[in-house]
Amino acid sequence: MDLRADAEGRPDGAVVRDALAVGVAVGLSGFAFGVTSAGSGLTVWQTCALSLLVFTGASQFALVGALAAGGNPLTAAAGAFFLGVRNAFYGLRLSQSLALPRAVRPFAAHWVIDETTAVSLAQRGRRAARLGFAVTGLSLYVLWNLTTLLGALGAEALGDTDAWGLDVAGPAVFVALLAPMLKTGVERAVAGLAVLLGLGLLPVLPAGVPVLAAALAAPAVLYAEGRRAAGRSPGGRDDSGQKEER
After folding, report:
1. Which of 41, 91, 108, 130 has its CA 20 to 30 A from that of 114?
2. CB-based contact 55:142 (threshold 8 Å)
3. In Å, what is the CA distance from 191 to each residue of 147, 181, 187, 210, 216?
4. What confidence score (pLDDT) does residue 10 get?
5. pTM of this structure
6. Helix axes 12-27, 126-158, angle to 10 degrees
7. 11 beta partners
8. How confident is the model over 58-79, as a mean pLDDT?
């Protein structure tokens, strides 16, 4: 293995090790998606096509979950789409740190997801960021699609996945992936409100629509946080903008 260091002195081996750890750990959860998708009525080929062409776990789980609940395909697709919009913002940030050649960007865009973004932005130099992105993307893409196939085939062999309790595998994996990312109070508040909205509206709205409604949690919490910050500001400063003496 090439142990050369990037401009900041970090060995390539360390970057590869971290990237593979993320790719393997998350890639194995593709098995849960394969089981969930096949259990919701999609064929093995439809399930594999989703992983090959969509390749963003949260959106895939949302899509098959809504379809399994009897939701309208267009509504299910809309929910999956809005969950995947965040990847476009990741791409804007990564375009600066990676600075890939134009010919490579359309192919690299398919690998812009939570995990590749996290690994890339954790690096200091451009060389390390590119290496982390490539290794994470490749290992995760290969393993995710392989385990998706195995999960779908396994679901067909098992028959009724609900009888085995595998219908909750998708949501469980999604929560396990999301929970460590909620590091601030605002992020936890958004997640908590989204859960309340999604579960509260589930009995009264068509399948898939509660997912869209849950997205309103983010602007609601940010608005409340902005109002609270604005309310604190005048109390700590006098008219001249200086801090009051206490």
Report:
1. 41
2. no
3. 28, 10, 6, 14, 11
4. 63
5. 0.68
6. 20
7. 5
8. 82
Max Cα–Cα distance, the chain, nearest Å: 73
Other CB atoms within 10 Å distance of the CB of residue 126: 16
- Please state, in angstroms and rounded to a whole number, the distance separating the CA atoms of residues 241 and 231: 15
Question: Does the pLDDT at position 104 exceed 80?
Answer: yes
Q: Which is higher by pLDDT, 241 or 212?
A: 212
Structure tokens at 119: 């690994």
Q: Where are the domains of the chain?
A: 12-181, 184-235
Q: What pLDDT is attached to residue 3?
A: 47
- Asked if pLDDT for residue 246 goes beyond 50, the answer is no
The pLDDT of residue 177 is above 80: no
For the four alpha carbons of 82, 91, 60 and 116, in that order, the dihedral sign comes to negative
125 burial (CB, 10 Å; 0-12 / 13-18 / 19+) is: middle
Q: Concatenate the DSSP letters of all residues of 170-232 into one string.
A: HHHHHHHHHGGG--SHHHHHHHHHHHHHHHHHTTTS-TTHHHHHHTTHHHHHHHHHHHHHHHH
> What are the CA-CA distances from residue 17 to residues 5, 11, 58, 132, 177 (Å)?
14, 10, 25, 9, 20
Instruction: Give CA–CA dist 15/125, Å, rounded.
Output: 11
Instruction: Let me know if 14 is exposed, middle or buried by CB neighbors in 10 A (0-12, 13-18, 19+).
Output: middle
**Two tokens at 175?**
């929560």
Token digits for 227? 């109002």
Tens digit of pLDDT for each residue in 122-141?
Answer: 888 899 999 999 999 999 99
